[in-house]
Amino acid sequence: MRNHGQRRITPSKDLQWIDCYPGGFQCGRLLVPLDYNNPDEDSAAIALVRLPASVPTNSSEYLGPILFNPGGPGGSGVDYITSLGANFATVVGSQFDIVGFDPRGVSRSTPRVSFFESRVERVLWGASGAGELNHSAITIGSSWARNKITGQLAVERDRNVLAHINTDHTARDMLRITEAHGRENLQYWGVSYGTVLGSTFAAMFPNKVHRLVIDGVVDVSDDYYTTKWTTNLRDTDHVLQWFFKDCLKAGPENCTFHEPSIEAMNTKLNDLYSSIIHSPVSVKTNTSYGIVDYARLRLTIFVAFYKPFAVWPMLATGLQDLIQGNGTVLYNILDQPSFRCSCNPLEHAFDSVPEAMTAIACNDGDLIPSGLEDALEHYREVLKVSEWGSVWAGIRMMCGGWSSDIPKTQFRGPIVGNTSFPLLLIGNIADPVTPLWAAHKVSKGFPGSVVLSQDSAGHCSIAAPSICTALAVREYFVNGTLPKSGTHCSIIGSPFAPNPPARGSGSGGSEIDSGGQTQIPLKLGTEVEDNDDLLEALKGLAGFRLGGYGSGMTPLHV
């Protein structure tokens, strides 16, 4: 399904749509300048997909396109929307076109970033981003050295493209996409790195904002654009404790890792770490094989932090089985199909590849010192923020070998602006890589913006079903109504018991969280005829595990 329809689309400046993927989707390829400083020279082609609105574009009910970005950087918006577009349409309303796009350099958009001459070469070299650096075959020194080589490959195989793969140019592409729809101002919902893109757009084009939601907000000015990558983990330790808390509440019948207290589960996990360091567990399944060592165990837990409803029951079972010497369930959480060569040179032409993240992040951020001592110092600094810094520190190291010849003249801040319409920012109380603190920090740069907090663990609000949050987003997009400052939304169910009845569903009442704060009413100005349909859409978003880089199920994801 990945590539159907895209190959036969001729890129154009007026964005022509053709039917493509099953489910009523349409695809297009928009020609944009490769270099906006020289717009009459080379072009790039941005791949798009949309789930069209249920009303004609000339209807008074039609509310225009909403652009989506899934994060990364380097995530495929086409994959995101072909997988989840119907769910998003249920959340925001069918009056909108639901539009995904592959950012320049990514997946189906051309020219595509690639540091390697073949898939085989890429796989043999291996990704050199995030991964456990403690008790691992991947040391800080080896990761640092490998990234030197990757940086050299990037420069040697550049086709005068890399300098134009950055957030500045992608923000300009979003404006071109909006204008190609006959609209002047952007409507947008971006998660994770998508909040870098969204807040950058708002700073570059403050008078071009119609509705803009950034969800799972990155500390963009003082961490992302400075290539520090240190503040992401401020709440990560809290996510692990949330896992234990949910397991405790669920009981042993629903959470197999259950112990009578959170402290006992902490102890059990630490004992498992010690055991695995001493004696890794071999795994052989019908389709794969490998070992669960300390690095695999830690990386699996960290990745599971992103999607509690999708992964935590499996994680609990995998941890308990591992204590008994069976690593199959835990190994399968990160297992990927074995690499196979293809006789069709076009079969993987639109794959998402890890070097897209490297190109975007390293082009966006400040140059970092190239010496090993700087890498070691950064590792120590990130560990001060969280014990999970041993997994996260490798991301910044990707830029240690990045060429200083690529100019940094594009817009990189300040990320502030008096926008034509206020922004809505959303953050979870326990997000593993985008702490709620960052949403409040970014909000200060945009007068009138509001931060909505969601009482859940996981990465971005869609990691857990909240009718409260969903209706706040819907009301914002449809009517331009922002939630009150300080709005706090709870979720429906828990990862270990996801199917309780929605509190107040269809009642027209309000949800009250455990702290006694009144939340968004369940029925707003825009009626939702059936909250059960909305809840099912939200469960689909929370439970979906999108494969590939920048998906939320890989550590190479902001």
From TrEMBL:
Domain Peptidase S33 tripeptidyl aminopeptidase-like C-terminal: 388-489
Chain spans, region Disordered: 493-518
GO molecular function, one term: hydrolase activity
Entry keyword Hydrolase: yes
Keyword Hydrolase recorded: yes
Source species, domain of life: Eukaryota
Pfam families from the UniProt entry: Abhydrolase_1, Abhydrolase_4
Family statement drawn from the similarity comment of this UniProt entry: Belongs to the peptidase S33 family.
Protein name in the entry: Alpha/beta-hydrolase
